[in-house]
Hints:
CATH architecture of the domain at 406-588: Orthogonal Bundle
CATH topology of the domain at 406-588: Isoleucyl-tRNA Synthetase, Domain 1
Structural class: alpha/beta
Strand content: 5-15%
Amino acid sequence: MKLEIKIAEITTEALKALYNIDFNTTEIQLQKTKKEFEGDFTIVTFPFVKSARKSPEVIGNELGEYICKHESLIDKFNVIKGFLNISIDKSYWIQQLEKIEQNNTFGYQEATEKSPLVMVEYSSPNTNKPLHLGHIRNNLLGYSLSEILKANGFKVVKTNIVNDRGIHICKSMLAWQKFGNGATPQSIGKKGDHLVGDFYVKFDKEYKKQVDELKAQGQSEEDAKRNAPLMIEAQEMLRKWEANDNEVRTLWNEMNSWVYDGFNETYKRLGIDFDKIYYESSTYLEGKSKVEEGLSKGIFYKKEDGSVWANLIDEGLDEKLLLRADGTSVYMTQDIGTAKLRFEDYPIDKMIYVVGNEQNYHFQVLSILLDKLGFSWGKDLVHFSYGMVELPEGKMKSREGTVVDADDLMDEMINTAKETSQELGKLNNQNESELNNIATIVGLGALKYFILKVDPRKNMLFDPKESIDFNGNTGPFIQYTHARIKSVLRKAEEQNINIATTIPATISISEKEAGLIRQLSTFPEIVKQAGKEYSPSVIANYIYDLVKEYNQFYHDFSILKEENEDLRSFRLLLSKNVAKIISLGMNLLGIKVPERM
Length: 597
């Protein structure tokens, strides 16, 4: 029986025995005792005042005495105003530690055949530029959310939709044709996504020059933008692509292949993967087909110019364009097509889209349209809406080439981790290969943790230097603590010190040690909470709190030098399982923890 239920039951029994009043266990207000007070659980006594006709303090003391007398698990109590703080007997926490030790994936649930299937879409890059800092937050959130849902017992399919068609793709292609001189990733030694991205920026610069020239000739800005030769050529290239022109399609396939190779390299470094990748070039026609089907069924309607719309006024929204007058699709149409293919590929129970909060309205509309079109999960689709990530210098713009490239950022983080570690003397005993490996783990861990510890719904400011700090709420601080514990365990093994898996219940452990076990025992609840709230930050901040508590314990108590053999064995077992939970928690964030630092 869960401990909280047991406490609630003995409390209702005490209320009946002492005051002859009936309370349901669900009515008992039970919470974790605040850190500043002694105790494990707190019972709020104010709700009993009216029926018992006594003050909250008196009720607290009488309840505390009854509970301690009739429940062996309760060791002692104290009352502060209307709050009864009860302490669980230390032997209980020792038993809990032994249970945690026996389960290598403590806190995780295994999926079964009956588990619901959740599909999580994240990344969604464009093939006209490399991945940047904004993509990093998206990818890290999507991957971590997927792992958290798996740990909650769901079947999970991680999926990506690549935006590989449209005018922005043609801009890069046209710029390469005009200014590329036949350059390839191999010929100039550059990642393919970076190469293509350079030409996207080049297009914008040359296009702006042409617009300025036309404005100087007397055209309005609107006319100049429309009449600029480069834009006219890009639009013509898009028309040829739509018409399946062989030359345009060949170039498109070649340049996209460069980008995919670059993306895959970045994903691998970042530790991100997918079970299935969809491409807009394949899904937009499916979307058009589905919209036309909706039109034939009267779900949508056609205007005089031939454009197709959805009337969502009854849903409190407006009218939504689905097909332009010339028959071309919009983003909404493409998302409908992608949904259709996914539904055919997988028996989806829930669909989660990891997309920035600027698309809130889009997904509100998509949910309604999918439901109208008969997708069972459409009404309940989840838009995991997250805030933007900015740098101290401000916002980023792809066209102007002011984005923070994902690869450059990872390089910077690894180099900074290496320099910081060497300055602090943390890697003095490592050879060059080990040093580079640990610097990579620490640098990428710092990047991931700094982003994931923030509530995903909030905008965030990313400061690379702050994220590498070996103190405070950072990845390196947590990783260093894990490595410290592993070092203690290695020394114990070298000294032939036994780490028992069972501990005598008679040993006397401190409040700090009991508190650490209590924290470990709540890990399954934390995993559930993170899954329910779709929030990796819940995991991140739990692990940070655990590490803080362990470091205080490490500072205040002897481990290897403890003379009492049972107590020494207990502290080693406690340390071992703190390291295990750190590793399990960080794994849900996609972060590695080193054995040595």
